[in-house]
Amino acid sequence: MEDFDPARCVSPEARVRIEREVESLRIRLESELSAGAQLLRRIKWEIETNRQILLPDLTLARRELAQAEKDLEVASKHDSSTLALIVLVFAFLIGWVIDLNRSSTGAFDEPAEAHRENSGNQPPPASRHDHGALTEREKEQEALKHYREGVKLSQGEKFAEAVEMFLEAVGIDPRLKAAYEELGYALYRLKRYEESIQASDAAIRLIFIDDDFKPYYNLGLVHFEIENWPGAIHAFQSSVDKLLHPYPWKDEYTEAYYRLGLSLAKAGDLHDEIQFLETDWRLINDLPIKRFELATFYTCAGRRKSAKKQHRLLLENGDFSLAEELLKLMKKHGKPV
Q1: What is the pLDDT of residue 336?
Q2: Burial 213-251 (b: 16+ CB within 10 A, else e)
Q3: In the predicted model, is pLDDT for residue 129 greater than 70?
Q4: Among 173, 255, 167, 171, which Cα is nearest to 213's?
Q5: Which spans in 106-192 are helix H?
Q6: DSSP symbols for 24-70
Q7: Phi/psi of residue 30, each to 5°?
Q8: pLDDT for residue 232 is more than 90
Q9: What is the domain count for the chain?
Q10: Residue 230 covered by a domain
Q11: 30: Cβ contacts below 8 Å, ≥ 6 apart
């Protein structure tokens, strides 16, 4: 291969050939990047969907782990031979009680099925509404089954049927926070606002980690619909306070910021909130999500040029994901940018 001589001019043919190769490479890379972005969005959706489905199982597993640790701690304090003796004594007593019960009821005089038919006082077998006969573990599994069915119905916008499933779930396991969350949203979609507030409040009372967005968001939706602006502001502000470093992003997050801005405007407080954010540039620079919040408030106030400036700053600072979400918000609720 001939060495490049900078003293000689590059021939037009060589220049055209290189430009064509570069253009071909650019087109291929753009195509691959576009396909990759679509794939990542699909993977993101699948991960988030699976996370929501598995969350109740994780909560149940945490409870069982905590109980197992307590049981192990208690068992470790006893001598193994003592435990074995206790187990044998209990087994003997249980067997003796069973035999005594069978003798007194005449269970050995006729087949079990015939005895069940002839006895008017015999309780019926456990049905889907008879949960008293289930063990704690069975109750939790039954509640999860109703919860998952409710999620499917809600995703299909069959909210009335979903409400029934979620009510079944919390009736069996009143500690199932995820079911209360979904119940609150389904009732909101059915315009059963008072019941929705009660369900969201129940979910909030069950929060064990102070980073839960959804119940506050559901509560904000209801207050927004009934035009309770102070209630909406408090609920939406509580929801977005959980989003200092949100990943992955959800459309609900954008909606929460936007509805917070609209609620502030309805209450006459939007200008003051904008001024507060404008005077705290250290907060804005340290937390990109606060720049997103300020831009959203600008959009609600009709200050599109100011919102576009914050979009540009997000891009310059490398916060591309938030910049993309902000651009979608401005296109949806403002003039084309």
Answers
A1: 42
A2: bbbbbbbbbbbbeeebbebbbbbbbbbbebbeebeeebe
A3: no
A4: 255
A5: 112-118, 136-155, 159-172, 177-189
A6: HHHHHHHHHHHHHHHHHHHHHHHHHHHHHHHHHHHHHHHHHHHHHHH
A7: -65, -40
A8: yes
A9: 2
A10: yes
A11: none
Rounded Cα–Cα distance for residues 192 and 149 (Å): 21
Whose CA is closest to 249, among 259, 237, 257? Answer: 257
Tell me whether residue 130 is exposed, middle or buried, using C-beta atoms within 10 angstroms of its C-beta: 0 to 12, 13 to 18, 19 or more: exposed
Please answer whether residues 186 and 159 qualify as being in contact, where contact means their C-beta atoms are separated by less than 8 angstroms: yes
Q: Are residues 220 and 251 in the same domain?
A: yes
162 with 270, same domain: the answer is no
The per-residue pLDDT for 244 is 76
Spatial distance between the Cα atoms of 258 and 50, rounded to a whole number of angstroms: 27
Question: 198 in a domain, yes or no?
Answer: yes
Which tens digit of pLDDT belongs to each residue from 141-194?
999 999 999 999 999 999 999 999 999 999 999 999 999 999 999 999 999 999
218, pLDDT greater than 60? yes
Q: How many residues does the chain have?
A: 337
Predicted TM-score (pTM) of the model is 0.60
Cα–Cα distance, 319 to 306 (Å, whole number): 17
Around Cβ 151, how many Cβ atoms within 10 Å? 22
The Cα–Cα gap between 11 and 16 comes to 9
Q: Are residues 151 and 204 in the same domain?
A: yes
CATH number at residue 169: 1.25.40.10
> Quick check: is 11 in a domain?
no
Give the domain extent around 280: 211-337
